[in-house]
Amino acid sequence: MPEAPDGPRILSFPRHADAAPPRPALEAVRVTRGRRAVLDGLTLRLPGAGVTALMGPNGAGKSLTLRVLAGLIRPETGAVRRTPRETALVFQRPVLLRRSVAGNLDHALRAAGLARRVRRERTEELLALGGLEALQSRPARALSGGEAQRLALVRALAGRPRLLLLDEPTASLDPRATAAIESIVARCAAEGVEVVLVTHDRGQAARLADRVAFLHQGRVAEAGSAARILRHPSSEAAVAYLEGRLLI
């Protein structure tokens, strides 16, 4: 996990051991669509820190897992353990308000209950984090894809979440835009925000993740350190996927 940068934290409040919440987890979660179980007894226990990458083929249940963790979808059976007010989700396609870049951030900070004088300082911090200072007055919906995703990401950090859920945040972005997003994610982890990242990019998982959970057919087929799973996966499904073979 990246080392925390010098200076004050801007993404998370200082944590105290006696105030640590239970680690987020899904236990035997089942979600169905029609007659099909898209999550079929899925169990996922998060370590409480660092970056966990969710990998696996399309339809494995990765994005749905994030939505269950975020509280957007309630499973038919199983248990979900999280702190909803301290969880933030960023979708693959940014959903931005019809206002300026700075206005989007101020709206999120106001929703988090911050006073106006505090919001101004926090807005400046988040603009700097996203490299968006020069764009703060631009309409958010006029941003490029990479700029919009950076705004969506730093806006999600407005309330200083403990758990940040990212659904393929760099899909379709060019290398420069991808590097900018990955830099923010690494900063999050360094400041103590736990990150769960859905990605199909093996290189991205190697660059960012401490841990990989490999999903197949609505279950966790394998979970462990990113270094081990990316180099020496043990499940047949993970081996096939990382070798580029089709999984059904």
Overall outline: globular
Specify the CATH homologous superfamily.
P-loop containing nucleotide triphosphate hydrolases
Q: In which order are the strands of the major sheet placed? A: 5-6-7-3-8-9
**Helix and strand succession?**
EEEHEEHHHEHEHEEHH
- Which class in CATH terms? Alpha Beta
Give me the secondary-structure category.
alpha/beta
What is the percentage of strand-forming residues? 15-25%
Tally of individual domains: 1
Distance from first to last alpha carbon: 33 Å
Task: Please tell me about this protein's structure.
By secondary structure, this protein is of the alpha/beta class. The chain has a single domain (17-242), classed as P-loop containing nucleotide triphosphate hydrolases (Rossmann fold, 3-Layer(aba) Sandwich). It is built from eight helices and nine strands. It has helices spanning 62-70, 101-111, 116-129, 145-156, 175-190, 202-208, 226-231, 236-242, and strands at 25-33, 36-45, 51-55, 77-81, 87-90, 163-167, 194-198, 211-216, 219-225. The strands form two sheets. The protein has a six-stranded mixed sheet, sandwiched between helices. A three-stranded antiparallel sheet has the order 2-1-4, with helices on one face. Strand 1 and strand 2 form a beta hairpin. The protein starts with 24 loop residues before the first strand and ends in a 6-residue tail after the last helix.
